[in-house]
Amino acid sequence: MSHHNEAPLLEVSGLRKSFDLSKPFINRVIERSERQLVKAVDGVDFTIQRGQTLSLVGESGCGKSTVAKLIMGLTRPSGGSIRFEGAELAGQVAGKPAHVRRRMQMIFQDPYASLNPRWRVARIIAEPMKSFGTHPDPEARRREVDRLLEFVGLGAADGDKFPHEFSGGQRQRISIARAISTKPEFLVCDEPTSALDVSVQAQILNLMRELQRELGLTYLFISHDLAVVNYISDWIGVMYLGRLVELAPAAEIFAKPQHPYTRLLLDTVPDISMSNRDIERPAGEVPNPITPPPGCHFHPRCPHANARCKTEMPEFIASATGHARCHAVQEGRLSAPTTAPAAAGAV
Amino acid sequence: MRQRVVIALALCAEPRLIIADEPTTALDVSVQAQIIALLRKLCKETGASVILVTHDMGVIAETADRVAVMYAGRVIEVGAVADVLRAPRHPYTAGLMASIPRIGEKPDILPQIDGAMPRLTARPEGCAFNPRCPKQMDICTRLRPGLVEDTQGAVACHLFSKEPAT
């Protein structure tokens, strides 16, 4: 799935996660109801090469944040494998094995909830260094905190302040300083700019790109904003109800979207050039993930669905630009994709 | 669906004016597009006016007729949506528009406005935007520009003052 021949930094295959929504056993016996499982992640495969960025996009509830949590060990997979430079992480708890986990960190969506309000910023940033033992000497640790603060565009004096003294963008800079404090090689970024204003979003995206260039970082980037994803990514994976429906290089997925869902997403991006203000908008909402439609999950909203799509799940196989999970694409039933106009996503 | 119910509630007294405060911020793109379309259709049919409060330029482009840009508690630019979005005049509006990533363009560095919105208790002297403004002049640190109306709309910036800065 990549132009590179070297081994990928992260390799995810057949990743699954089900959550049990069943009523308690005794209720099930009395009401004769079945167990209810929601397949939040239902067989996801991708690889990320060192120094590259893969983004996962999709609507709420498609499972993209669950993939992020599974990779970081914040929740345990129900099946499949997660390999970081060959080391198997599926089934291991958060933080274990330490020598691998130290090389992976996460930036969270909400910069107001992800920083401890009772800790000073220096302590927040030093915590990963302390827990992984990378800087045992407190004075060296504080010097490193000061360096990190300046590196992300804050001042060393800011280490003595509390999180509430900072704006959203500044807090996200603190989160980034914390994430890179143990010199990780791989960062999972779960909607890092969704809570920020446009002008601040640009600052954070530029900072992340700069860090990638200077430190050679590899990113898994989660977002619902296609324009942001277009700016930051090398590869893009589109998720729908727990499955990857398309995976392709960023430039090609926007120029030549294969899967009908990718086309729908591109059509719904508000267009700031105002060239097609009055076009008809696609209808439908994401179905309830507890009872997903059979066959291809997308068929109730798909303009190209036929009888096969309603019964048979399409395989995730090679397409013109990458991989796609669609009978119509595989049978060549789809017309050539239209090139998307210059558009902007949510800001 | 919930937002549709809220819109129905807002419309049931047949108002002349609807104030919509970030109506699509919590929604996914595909649902957002539907809600925008619904809001526009209903307004056309009932003749109601809408004040849409949002930070999403895409939604503004799709929905609004006129737009007023605010900074630090004051309106700094007003105009027809097409004019303001395509040819912003105030340096803050220009910076905002430039900093939005666009599909089909992939610059190495996204244009950004440095710094942050000032605290309202510590508003800078003169024009509130002057410390972050790439076109800052002497007068900007001393005198707050008023919102000056002209044929295109209105803008509060010394660059567009009728009398030359003294």
Percent in strands of chain B: 15-25%
Number of strands of chain A: 13
Radius of gyration of chain A: 21 Å
Structural class of chain A: alpha/beta
State the total count of DSSP E strands of chain B: 7
Radius of gyration of chain B: 18 Å
Query: Which class best fits the helix and strand makeup of chain B?
Result: alpha+beta
> What form of chain A results from the Cα inertia axes?
globular
Order of strands across the widest beta sheet of chain B?
3-4-7-6
Largest chain-chain contact?
Answer: A-B, 51 and 42 residues
| Low-confidence parts of chain B | none
Oligomer, anyone? heterodimer
Shape of chain B: globular
What is the helix tally of chain B?
6
Strand content range of chain A: 15-25%
Instruction: Identify low-pLDDT runs of chain A.
Output: 339-347
Q: Which H/E pattern describes the elements of chain A? A: EHEEHEEHEHHHEHEHEEHHHEEHE
Report mean pLDDT of chain B, rounded to a whole number.
Answer: 86
Give the SSE map.
The complex is a heterodimer of chains A (347) and B (166).
Chain A: E1 10-20, H1 25-31, E2 37-48, E3 53-57, H2 64-72, E4 79-84, E5 87-88, H3 98-101, E6 104-107, H4 121-132, H5 138-151, H6 168-179, E7 186-190, H7 198-215, E8 218-223, H8 226-232, E9 235-240, E10 243-249, H9 250-255, H10 260-268, H11 307-311, E11 317-318, E12 323-324, H12 327-331, E13 343-344
Parallel strand pairs in A: 3-8, 3-9, 6-7, 7-8
Antiparallel strand pairs in A: 1-2, 1-4, 4-5, 9-10, 10-12, 11-12
Chain B: H1 2-11, E1 17-21, H2 29-46, E2 49-53, H3 57-63, E3 66-71, E4 74-80, H4 81-86, H5 91-98, E5 102-103, H6 138-142, E6 148-150, E7 153-155
Parallel strand pairs in B: 1-2
Antiparallel strand pairs in B: 3-4, 4-7, 6-7
